[in-house]
């Protein structure tokens, strides 16, 4: 199967995946106890006002009719409207999604930039103190909940030392860079706003590190295991017997083979971090889709919840597709096969 055919087939699979995801989310959101219309109308609303709101948003119709109406709207680019803000969900997602995407990209960059070197160093120094420290750090990182780490970072670095901001994305007293992509760091770079870049980076550092710790620890462990496995292979011993320099063996053979499993993990973690940013965003008051989803869940605002779920599902599937393609690039022996 050619690469284009493989991509086309995987993209076609998006349809049943997103359909099933929307049906599941719709069903769960409707069986949750509570009346979203009454919450949106307020405690002093009359029955007539509640009825008008229900009619306005189509919530007085049977559930199958509501779902069919929602799916039809999706095909027309209509993601519904929020009960509370009365804004289109698509507009809200366009505002909040870049903030989460920026947070996830920086967090994953930290995990890759620190996790792979730590795993390599741990494997090279197997049995010595750097290996012991690396393994202890990896175990701690996997075990420590993200929200608890976020609170510790706030207490230590923001409240006690005052080194970094305690939360938020950009100070309200300063003017952010003009919106191009919605990602403040990238927008600051594109416009040469160096002060805004420094301010945005300082606000991003704590939530990004809190979000990155779990994948960082996992990548360290995976890279160490892959390195040790590759170093024990026959081709490494054969290369050494033929006098191949250790530097060539390490970078051309060992490191390349050890990174294969890590590539797959990186792709999976991109989707996991996107969906797992909820608690970190809530702790740091980061205005992304995670915080947007939390506020919507509290008020039983169905349409934003479904919109966030579909966006995360879409990005998760696409990231897995990109991972499969990169896996074939890293190891040319791998061919995209049918099934």
Terminal CA distance reads: 10 Å
Second CATH tier, the architecture of the largest domain: Orthogonal Bundle
Could you say which overall geometry the principal axes of the C-alpha atoms support?
globular
CATH fold naming of the largest domain? MetI-like fold
CATH superfamily of the largest domain: MetI-like
Q: What does the largest sheet look like?
A: none
Number of helices: 15
Strand content: under 5%
CATH level 1 class label of the largest domain: Mainly Alpha
The Rg value, from CA coordinates, equals: 24 Å
Poorly predicted segments: none
The H/E string reads HHHHHHHHHHHHHHH
Account of the 3D structure:
- It is globular, with a radius of gyration of 24 Å.
- The protein is built from 15 helices and no strands.
- The relative contact order is 0.14.
- The mean pLDDT is 84.
- The protein folds into two domains: 3-75, no CATH class; 89-330, MetI-like (MetI-like fold).
- α6 packs across α10 (194-231).
- The protein has helices at 3-12, 14-31, 36-41, 47-56, 63-75, 89-124, 129-143, 146-160, 184-191, 194-231, 234-241, 246-276, 278-284, 289-298, 302-330.
Summed up, what is this model?
The protein is mostly helical and 339 residues long. The chain contains 15 helices and no strands. The chain folds into 2 domains: 3-75, no CATH class; 89-330, Orthogonal Bundle (MetI-like fold), CATH 1.10.3720.
């Amino acid at each position: 199967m050619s690469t284009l055919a493989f991509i086309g087939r995987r993209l076609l699979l998006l349809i049943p995946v997103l359909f099933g995801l929307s049906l599941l989310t719709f069903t769960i959101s409707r069986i949750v106890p509570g009346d979203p219309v009454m919450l949106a109308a307020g405690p002093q609303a009359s029955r007539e006002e509640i009825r008008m709101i229900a009619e306005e948003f189509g919530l007085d119709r049977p559930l199958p009719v509501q779902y069919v109406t929602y799916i039809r709207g999706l095909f027309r680019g209509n993601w519904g409207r929020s009960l509370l803000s009365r804004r289109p969900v698509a507009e809200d997602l366009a505002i909040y999604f870049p903030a989460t995407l920026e947070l996830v990209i920086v967090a994953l960059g930290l995990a890759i930039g620190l996790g792979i070197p730590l795993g390599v160093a741990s494997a090279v120094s197997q049995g010595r103190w750097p290996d012991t420290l690396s393994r202890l750090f990896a175990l701690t990182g996997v075990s420590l909940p993200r929200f608890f780490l976020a609170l510790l970072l706030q207490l230590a670095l923001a409240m006690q030392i005052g080194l970094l901001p305690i939360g938020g994305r950009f100070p309200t007293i300063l003017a952010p860079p003009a919106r191009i992509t919605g990602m403040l760091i990238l927008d600051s770079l594109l416009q040469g706003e160096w002060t805004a870049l420094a301010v945005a980076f300082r606000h991003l550092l704590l939530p990004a590190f809190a979000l990155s710790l779990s994948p960082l620890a996992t990548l360290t462990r995976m890279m160490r295991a892959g390195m040790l496995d590759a170093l024990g292979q026959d081709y490494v011993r054969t290369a050494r017997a033929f006098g191949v320099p250790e530097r060539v063996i390490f970078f051309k053979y060992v490191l390349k083979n050890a990174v294969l499993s890590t590539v797959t993990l990186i792709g999976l973690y991109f989707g996991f971090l996107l969906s797992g940013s909820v608690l970190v965003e809530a702790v740091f008051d980061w205005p992304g889709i995670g915080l947007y989803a939390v506020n919507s869940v509290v008020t039983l605002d169905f349409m934003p919840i479904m919109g966030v779920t579909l966006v995360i599902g879409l990005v998760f599937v696409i990231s897995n597709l990109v991972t499969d393609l990169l896996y074939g690039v890293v190891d040319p022996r791998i061919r995209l096969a049918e099934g």
